[in-house]
Design goal:
mainly beta, three-stranded antiparallel beta sheet, 2 helices, 151 residues
Length: 151
Amino acid sequence: MITFELELPDPSTETEISRADLTFSGLDHSGPSYQIRVYFDAPEAGPDTARSNEAGFAGQFAVFGHGGCFGEEGHCEVTDPVSAFDRTHPHQLVPATRILDVTPAVQALLAAGRTSVRVSLVPVVRASPLASPEQAEDVLVIDQVALHTYE
């Protein structure tokens, strides 16, 4: 699990937000498929925590994993384009980006006058022939999380 503090827009402004998105950049998807459950102000959240407003649940998204590397040595190493004019498709394992709409949860926090929130990201891996729930401890690799709000 990853937990961090996230600053919210200033609630004293009279501008209402119409949408709030959490953008997750640099998600690793080289291993098993997994789900990320996002909780606000629930640092004790885990895979068995209820997905309800009362539990702080803000939303979830899935990452389709590649299940590991089965190719030759170097096959799964992410490579940069050869040049700025390289028109080949990017490597399949370029880190992913996901956007999660958290509008109702953020609007409720702003209405309560909150200026920040504690965010908990709970990875969940379901058992399959290529994965086990124990892998959830290692599967979550993220470069950046950002909150984007729109008026």
